[in-house]
């Protein structure tokens, strides 16, 4: 690991000033960044430890739940307001990592965690995320875990965050020291620049998340399919939020993980349900709409069927369809 300087600022202004240095990086729980630095996948000359900043509160006020960026995953998952009004967020967090990691990891860092693509994590292989222009071995190599949606000829690595999929489903807003960003606009697809994963500027600090308390968010669930029961990233995941009037879908959010290069929302799948009865037929139509633009590779074609089946099961459970 390369040598680096370390600073522990006392307030947000000082943290942002220190992080403005070239090659500086914030650290909170450190559960992702430290592993990347040890493995040689990332290298930084300055580390700015923000654990001392007052950004850990979870507050419900005026129809909004605000979650500080330094709130620990386990605390957010267990919070009564989150469990009551944002069940999809609680479920996504409880399906993340291990209890030990959830006790350490901050929610702000979780939505910024880097992909688990083996080519990115291996310092000895080419990867456009690490070195732009060096190539993407996953395109023709081992790509079982890779994206079928949102990829490009430069990168097909999936975003690994369960929490990000849930926050997208409940219309969360990211607060930074500079602005507010709708969560739908926060992550970006790789295009020709896969090293850029979010719209954050250099040194911009996430301070928290605002989530509206709505009937839609209150009726929400998260389903994660993985290769083993614990401490594993999603092969496919689905977050769904429904606002129903009788059997008719008044409004809906459908978001997905494990299948795309960023937390993925499907307006096409939602349109297949919105304003219609929730039935076997409309659920099937939603699944087909989701994968209509999918691009598969040698080892990940199975995700096309799997994500549709996951969506079907979750919607049936959430909407009481038999």
UniProtKB/TrEMBL annotation:
The keyword Lyase does not apply. One of its GO terms (molecular function) is oxidoreductase activity. Keywords: Oxidoreductase. Transmembrane segments: none annotated. The keyword Oxidoreductase applies. Pfam families: CO_deh_flav_C, FAD_binding_5. Residues 1-216 form the FAD-binding PCMH-type domain. This is Xanthine dehydrogenase YagS FAD-binding subunit.
């Amino acid at each position: 690991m390369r040598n680096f300087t370390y600073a522990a600022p006392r307030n947000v202004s000082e943290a942002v000033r220190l992080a403005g240095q070239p090659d500086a990086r914030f650290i909170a729980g450190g559960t992702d960044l430290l592993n990347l630095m040890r493995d040689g996948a990332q290298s930084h000359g300055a580390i700015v430890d923000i654990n001392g900043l007052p950004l850990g509160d979870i507050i419900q006020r005026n129809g909004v739940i605000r979650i500080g960026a330094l709130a620990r995953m386990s605390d957010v998952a267990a919070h009564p307001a989150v469990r009551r009004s944002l069940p999809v967020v609680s479920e996504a967090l409880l399906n993340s990592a291990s209890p030990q990691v959830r006790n350490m990891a901050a929610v702000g860092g979780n939505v910024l965690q880097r992909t688990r693509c083996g080519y990115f994590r291996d310092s000895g292989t080419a990867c456009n995320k690490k070195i732009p222009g060096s190539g993407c071995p996953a395109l023709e190599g081992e790509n079982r875990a890779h994206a079928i949606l949102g990829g490009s000829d430069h990168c097909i690595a999936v975003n690994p965050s369960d929490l990000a999929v849930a926050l997208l489903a409940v219309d969360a807003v990211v607060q930074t020291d500079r602005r507010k960003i709708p969560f739908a606009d926060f992550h970006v697809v790789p295009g020709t620049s896969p090293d850029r994963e979010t719209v954050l500027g250099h040194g911009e600090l996430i301070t928290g998340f605002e989530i509206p308390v709505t009937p839609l968010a209150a009726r929400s669930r998260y389903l994660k399919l993985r290769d083993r029961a614990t401490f594993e990233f999603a092969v496919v995941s689905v977050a769904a939020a429904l606002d129903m009037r009788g059997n008719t879908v008044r409004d809906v959010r459908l978001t997905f993980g494990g299948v795309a290069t960023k937390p993925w929302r499907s307006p096409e799948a939602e349109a297949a349900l919105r304003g219609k009865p929730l039935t076997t037929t409309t659920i099937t139509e939603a699944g087909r709409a989701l994968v209509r633009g999918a691009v598969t590779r040698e080892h990940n074609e199975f995700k096309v069927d799997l994500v549709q089946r996951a969506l079907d099961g979750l919607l049936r459970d959430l909407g009481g369809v038999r």
